[in-house]
Every structure is written in C-alpha cells, then in structure tokens.
TrEMBL record:
Domain of life of the organism encoding this protein: Eukaryota
Originating organism: Phytophthora infestans (strain T30-4)
Domain Serine aminopeptidase S33: start-end pairs: 40-94
InterPro entries recorded: AB_hydrolase_fold (IPR029058), Hydrolase_4 (IPR022742)
The protein's name in its UniProt record: Serine aminopeptidase S33 domain-containing protein
C-alpha cells in the first residue's frame, strides 16, 4: 500500500517509501512504514533508513503495540503490553506480511 511521504520522512524523498496498517492476531491495528533504495524490489529513525537505503539496504519498520500510530492494548494506555509475547507475536506476524 503506497502512500505519500510524510513530512517527518522527507529525507527519504529519493527512496521508495510505503506505509500502512496491519491487524495483529488480537485484532489491533499496527502501523508500519518501509523504505527501499530506488530501483529495488519492494519517523523517528528516518535518518537511519536513509543511510541504509543509500547503502543498498531495504528498511521495513512498524510501530509496536501502544507506540506511534499503532493501537494500544487499552484506550489511552501507551507504550505498554501486558504480555511480552504480544511483541514477539506481532513482530513474527509482520515479518510474514512483508515483501522479501
């Protein structure tokens, strides 16, 4: 799902950028973003994404449960997960959804 480049990712203007959301196994919507170097097959750390892309690496990232643009386990509860396994499960699920 391609989207326009958000202002905080403007340093990636020469890279291929995409973002979107996916549902974890518990039905919560989590945000992700990805950046790839031009000609490749494919917000806070965009300076790292740019460096990696300029050196030929693709970058895929997502906001973990309760962080950034992803949903929280409970409304208003940020940066918290009652089970560490949730973070492991979400990361494994996201990895399966990403293009390789």
């Amino acid at each position: 799902m391609a989207s326009s480049l958000p202002a905080q990712a403007s340093c990636l203007q020469d890279q291929r950028y995409t973002d979107g959301h996916f549902l974890n196994a518990r039905g919560q919507k989590l945000f992700y973003c990805a950046a790839f170097p031009p000609e490749s097959h494919s917000l806070r750390f965009t300076h790292v994404y740019r460096h990696l892309c300029l050196n030929g690496y693709g970058v895929i990232a997502y906001d973990m449960l309760g962080h950034g643009q992803s949903e929280s386990e409970k409304p208003g509860l940020r940066a918290h997960g009652s089970e560490f396994q949730y973070f492991v499960d979400d990361t494994n699920q996201f990895e399966l959804l990403t293009p390789h």
